[in-house]
């Protein structure tokens, strides 16, 4: 390994030699710009400019196992130990999207350009068009939980809809199924957000009004809050308990506050239904209808397990959820109206009790106050619909109508109105799962592992099409020396090339044959430069820029310029 | 705000049912009677007029899914008109049209006006007829007739005439078809420029009846004058439909080359107005035209059909689906590179599906064709027993087609007695 480079010009110019904070385990140059992305032992990603100025650092929190720039250099893909692959923006390191399709470490990443669709007439390839975007605005997103500020709650990608031409049946199915999955996620999140918000609002209401019950007991009255309010409404008498409650403990401000909380929440819920729940359910219905068409194409789709019966069932369920949403919306609006009516009445009562003018207040409907006291004061129909384990009692008339509708092609399951909205959603989800599990099992059964090729990153990188850069560590016996290594470029054309066929039998890695074609590298014949450090694994070479970054074992980064000596390459002896 | 007492009828009427005790439910038990659903039906404080408006938005949606992209005059006419207008072939998204009708029929029944309710039920019956056959549709129609007795029966009557005409055409009872068609024409006002939709429909049905009777030149004449009318009034959906009908007339008369430009014109109309299902059906006609030009066009025809199949199978009715399947089978059979011995199931499965659906629809002529092809395939395969079976079915359908029996139909009798 000894070379007398004293009489020769050093082949690679050392740009700089900088210390690094911690050991680098992966390093990749951006293919378009002079940017170097590095992953440290602590799984931080650092992005440096060519002049070693640091642009940003991010730390995904989990062990990073691979790194790969997108060919346009505008994003970098990061593979994690838990199977997540995330995409980060080159400008600021912001997470663009992430996906996790399995739980095994991602050890190697590569970008593949989507190949042109091969139109083979004999194969009768037909362009499949996703019509959803013709009819619907962009799909609704998951509603935000109020108070939680987080930029990364959803990774749904709008561009998903722009895939117009799909390669094959499975791809079409997967496209629809994943869209439907996203939309069910929207519904699930909407339901849980609504449930949370509504129970918070109701808790506020009950906290305020529970003191009335206590006051009634304190005053040794034998009645309920509803009765007290009712007699106030009737104008018979104002019991001291109610008087004290309204004027002292609740007061005008208190009523207004509760009014704001309850009615504001109800409005919020209505917005969630209108902006998220309902559109999502409608698009699901549309997509299911499209899938049903595909499922009837037996010759083509039965083979991949798209079952007409299961899809039909799922279509019915997505219709039922639309009816349920309509019912929920109506209950919600009417509850909201009755609450606000009740509070308006209370405001008026307080004004009267305080003997203040009450003419600027909103009018109220006393009949609705009675309904409120009887049916809403201590019961919560909205919450009922949002909970899974409730049975809704449906009146006979409605039941009869639903049964009659079966004759007109209505839903054959007449009991669906007895389920709550949440329960219906659960059933819909189950039916989707069942329908989409079928293709999954059918396809899985058909897949056979034919061949396995080990994937591992090579310790060399192509500097250009014709050159290979190698990094060699000197095998020095003395451990106290600073280490000794060299970097060299090898002309790829000089190396023998043997193509390894994937489809021959298993002894394709026939080492004997490969050994025969091995060549001995002679240091004197190649461009070599010694590096006065012991170097370690990642060697980042930028083919377009002709630079290489070498990491030494003692936490140093060395950047060499490969390109300048290109002219000198020919005169190697 | 609503006035006092506006809701008393809705909830007070139901109060005695839920409790005999005093008004307030502080006693045990009666509390369970309040349920979320009561807030939906009886205790809802939403005014009826708002509900009606909301409900008509669902009818609107349902109709939109049926006739998306039709001409502007459809939308500018009052609610009642566009609700009942129905070009049977441009159903864009069958499941959503049905579901929206169902949402209306389930949630807005109390608040709706009876004419709205009748049109929604008419829609549902129409859907039944197209997708599940006439038997179920007529059963539902009978229920609807009883339900909407009080109503001036125009929506239901129109629907009945439409269904009777379709069924008569399919069964091959052309005399009855013509009779029904004439009755439909009488429903329209005699003033010109009024009831345009109804007049168009009657004339379209007239042309179809003539076509079924193989009166090609008369059918073409009616269709041509209809096209002039539709073009003049910018009725785009009808334009495309009539052009397609002209293509069909030429196809059936054996002039495939003359039919091609009509099919292509219809196709371009559909494309520019987003009439997806009509486009799929025009594509199917185009494929049939190519196929009738000779077996060397079979590949092209097959590609066309496959392109339209997702739409046809998803949103097309029984008739369109069966037609597509038969056309696909014919493509395979006339393709020289296809051999029945290698893969007979491809063709047989298609024909079996088609004949099943046609039997539900009682479409004798097309069902006979399916069995005819099936018998040929079995003959080639040497499965004589199954060949005889298919041949017998073929014969049965041809016999029924030639001797249609509708006289014992009670529905028909009521119709004929009508002034």
TrEMBL record, chain A:
<dbReference type="GO" id="GO:0031145">
    <property type="term" value="P:anaphase-promoting complex-dependent catabolic process"/>
</dbReference>
<feature type="domain" description="Anaphase-promoting complex subunit 4 long">
    <location>
        <begin position="165"/>
        <end position="356"/>
    </location>
</feature>
<dbReference type="Pfam" id="PF12894">
    <property type="entry name" value="ANAPC4_WD40"/>
</dbReference>
<keyword id="KW-0833">Ubl conjugation pathway</keyword>
<keyword id="KW-0131">Cell cycle</keyword>
<dbReference type="InterPro" id="IPR024977">
    <property type="entry name" value="Apc4-like_WD40_dom"/>
</dbReference>
<dbReference type="GO" id="GO:0005680">
    <property type="term" value="C:anaphase-promoting complex"/>
</dbReference>
<dbReference type="InterPro" id="IPR015943">
    <property type="entry name" value="WD40/YVTN_repeat-like_dom_sf"/>
</dbReference>
<keyword id="KW-0132">Cell division</keyword>
<dbReference type="InterPro" id="IPR024790">
    <property type="entry name" value="APC4_long_dom"/>
</dbReference>
<dbReference type="GO" id="GO:0051301">
    <property type="term" value="P:cell division"/>
</dbReference>
<protein>
    <recommendedName>
        <fullName>Anaphase-promoting complex subunit 4</fullName>
    </recommendedName>
</protein>
<keyword id="KW-0175">Coiled coil</keyword>
<dbReference type="InterPro" id="IPR036322">
    <property type="entry name" value="WD40_repeat_dom_sf"/>
</dbReference>
<dbReference type="Pfam" id="PF12896">
    <property type="entry name" value="ANAPC4"/>
</dbReference>
<dbReference type="GO" id="GO:0070979">
    <property type="term" value="P:protein K11-linked ubiquitination"/>
</dbReference>
<keyword id="KW-0498">Mitosis</keyword>
<dbReference type="InterPro" id="IPR001680">
    <property type="entry name" value="WD40_rpt"/>
</dbReference>
<feature type="domain" description="Anaphase-promoting complex subunit 4-like WD40">
    <location>
        <begin position="28"/>
        <end position="113"/>
    </location>
</feature>
<feature type="coiled-coil region">
    <location>
        <begin position="156"/>
        <end position="183"/>
    </location>
</feature>
<dbReference type="InterPro" id="IPR024789">
    <property type="entry name" value="APC4"/>
</dbReference>
<dbReference type="GO" id="GO:0034399">
    <property type="term" value="C:nuclear periphery"/>
</dbReference>
Automatic annotation (TrEMBL), chain B:
<keyword id="KW-0833">Ubl conjugation pathway</keyword>
<keyword id="KW-0131">Cell cycle</keyword>
<dbReference type="GO" id="GO:0070979">
    <property type="term" value="P:protein K11-linked ubiquitination"/>
</dbReference>
<keyword id="KW-0498">Mitosis</keyword>
<dbReference type="GO" id="GO:0031145">
    <property type="term" value="P:anaphase-promoting complex-dependent catabolic process"/>
</dbReference>
<protein>
    <recommendedName>
        <fullName>Anaphase-promoting complex subunit 5</fullName>
    </recommendedName>
</protein>
<keyword id="KW-0132">Cell division</keyword>
<dbReference type="GO" id="GO:0045842">
    <property type="term" value="P:positive regulation of mitotic metaphase/anaphase transition"/>
</dbReference>
<dbReference type="GO" id="GO:0005680">
    <property type="term" value="C:anaphase-promoting complex"/>
</dbReference>
<dbReference type="InterPro" id="IPR037679">
    <property type="entry name" value="Apc5"/>
</dbReference>
<dbReference type="GO" id="GO:0051301">
    <property type="term" value="P:cell division"/>
</dbReference>
């Amino acid at each position: 390994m000894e070379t007398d480079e004293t009489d020769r010009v050093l082949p690679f110019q050392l740009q700089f030699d900088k210390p690094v904070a911690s050991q680098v385990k992966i390093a990749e140059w951006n293919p378009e710009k002079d940017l170097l992305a590095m992953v440290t032992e602590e799984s931080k990603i650092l992005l440096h400019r060519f002049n070693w100025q640091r642009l940003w650092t991010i730390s995904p929190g989990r062990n990073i196992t691979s790194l790969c720039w997108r060919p346009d250099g505008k994003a970098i893909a990061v593979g994690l130990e838990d199977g997540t692959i995330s995409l980060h923006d080159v400008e600021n390191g912001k997470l663009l999207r992430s996906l996790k399709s399995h739980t095994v470490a991602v050890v190697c990443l590569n970008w593949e350009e989507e190949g042109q669709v091969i139109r083979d007439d004999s194969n009768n390839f037909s362009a499949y068009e996703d019509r959803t975007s013709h009819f619907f605005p962009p799909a609704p997103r998951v509603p935000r939980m109020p108070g939680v500020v987080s930029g990364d709650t959803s990774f749904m990608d709008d561009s998903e809809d722009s895939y117009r031409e799909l390669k094959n049946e499975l791809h079409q199915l997967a496209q629809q199924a994943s869209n439907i999955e996203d939309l069910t996620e929207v519904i699930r999140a909407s339901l849980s957000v609504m449930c949370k918000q509504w129970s918070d609002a109701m808790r506020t209401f009950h906290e305020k009004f529970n003191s009335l019950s206590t006051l009634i007991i304190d005053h040794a009255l034998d009645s309920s809050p509803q009765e007290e309010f009712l007699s106030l409404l009737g104008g018979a008498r104002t019991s001291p308990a109610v008087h004290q409650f309204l004027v002292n403990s609740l007061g005008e401000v208190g009523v207004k506050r509760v009014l704001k909380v309850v009615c504001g929440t109800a409005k919020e819920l209505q917005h969630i239904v209108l902006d998220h729940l309902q559109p999502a359910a409608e698009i699901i219905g549309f997509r299911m209808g499209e899938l049903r068409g595909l499922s009837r194409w037996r010759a083509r789709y039965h083979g991949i397990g798209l079952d007409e019966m299961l899809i039909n069932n799922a279509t019915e369920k997505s219709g039922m959820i639309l009816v349920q949403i309509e019912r929920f919306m109506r209950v919600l609006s009417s509850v909201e109206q009755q609450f606000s009516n009740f509070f308006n009445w209370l405001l008026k009562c307080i004004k009267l009790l305080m003997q203040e003018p009450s003419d600027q207040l909103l009018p109220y409907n006393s009949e609705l106050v009675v309904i409120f006291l009887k049916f809403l004061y201590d019961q919560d129909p909205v919450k009922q619909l949002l909970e899974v384990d409730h049975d809704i009692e449906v009146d006979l008339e409605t039941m009869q109508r639903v049964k009659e509708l079966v004759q007109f092609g209505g839903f054959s399951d007449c009991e669906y109105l007895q389920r709550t909205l949440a329960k219906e959603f659960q059933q819909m989800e189950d039916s989707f799962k069942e329908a989409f599990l079928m293709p999954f099992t059918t396809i899985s059964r058909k897949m056979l592992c034919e061949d396995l090729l080990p994937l591992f990153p090579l310790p060399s990188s192509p500097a250009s099409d014709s050159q290979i850069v190698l990094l060699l560590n000197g095998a020095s016996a003395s451990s106290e020396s600073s280490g000794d290594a060299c970097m060299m470029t090898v002309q790829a054309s000089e190396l023998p090339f043997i193509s390894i066929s994937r489809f021959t039998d298993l002894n394709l890695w026939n080492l004997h044959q490969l050994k025969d074609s091995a060549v001995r590298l002679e240091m004197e014949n190649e461009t070599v430069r010694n590096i006065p450090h012991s170097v370690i694994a990642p060697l980042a070479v930028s083919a377009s820029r002709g630079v290489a970054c070498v990491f030494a074992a003692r936490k140093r980064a060395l950047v060499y310029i490969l390109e300048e000596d290109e002219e000198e390459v020919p005169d190697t002896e | 705000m609503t006035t006092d007492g506006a809701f008393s009828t809705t909830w007070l009427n139901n109060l005695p049912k839920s409790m005999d005790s005093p008004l307030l439910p502080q006693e045990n038990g009666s509390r369970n009677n309040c349920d979320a659903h009561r807030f939906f039906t009886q205790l809802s404080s939403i005014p009826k007029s708002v509900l009606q408006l909301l409900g008509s938005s669902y009818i609107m949606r349902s109709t939109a899914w049926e006739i998306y992209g039709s001409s502007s005059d459809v939308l500018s006419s009052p609610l009642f008109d566009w609700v009942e207008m129905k070009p049977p072939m441009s159903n864009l998204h069958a499941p959503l049209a049905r579901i929206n009708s169902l949402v209306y029929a389930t949630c807005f029944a109390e608040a709706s006006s009876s004419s709205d309710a009748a049109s929604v039920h008419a829609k549902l019956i129409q859907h039944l007829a197209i997708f599940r056959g006439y038997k179920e549709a007529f059963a539902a129609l009978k229920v609807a007739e009883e339900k909407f007795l009080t109503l001036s029966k125009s929506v239901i009557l129109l629907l009945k005439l439409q269904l009777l005409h379709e069924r008569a055409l399919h069964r091959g009872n052309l005399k009855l078809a013509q009779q029904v068609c004439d009755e439909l024409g009488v429903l329209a006002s005699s003033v010109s420029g009024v009831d345009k939709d109804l007049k168009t429909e009657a004339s379209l049905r007239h042309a179809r009846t003539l076509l079924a009777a193989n009166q090609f030149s008369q059918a073409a004449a009616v269709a041509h004058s209809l096209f002039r009318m539709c073009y003049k009034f910018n009725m785009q959906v009808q334009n495309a439909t009539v052009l397609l009908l002209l293509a069909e007339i030429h196809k059936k008369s054996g002039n495939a080359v003359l039919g091609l430009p009509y099919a292509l014109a219809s196709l371009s109309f559909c494309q520019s107005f987003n009439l997806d299902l009509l486009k799929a059906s025009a594509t199917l006609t185009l494929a049939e035209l190519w196929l009738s030009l000779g077996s060397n066009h079979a590949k092209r025809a097959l590609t066309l059909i496959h392109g339209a199949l997702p739409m046809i199978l998803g949103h097309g009715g029984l008739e369109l689906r069966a037609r597509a399947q038969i056309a696909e089978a014919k493509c395979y059979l006339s393709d020289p590179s296809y051999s029945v011995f290698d893969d007979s199931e491809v063709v047989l499965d298609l024909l079996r599906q088609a004949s099943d659906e046609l039997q539900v629809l009682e479409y004798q002529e097309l069902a006979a064709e399916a069995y005819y092809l099936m018998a040929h395939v079995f003959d080639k395969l040497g499965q004589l027993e199954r060949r005889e079976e298919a041949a017998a079915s073929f014969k049965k359908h041809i016999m029924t087609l030639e001797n249609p029996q509708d006289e014992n139909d009670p529905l028909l009798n009521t119709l004929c007695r009508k002034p």
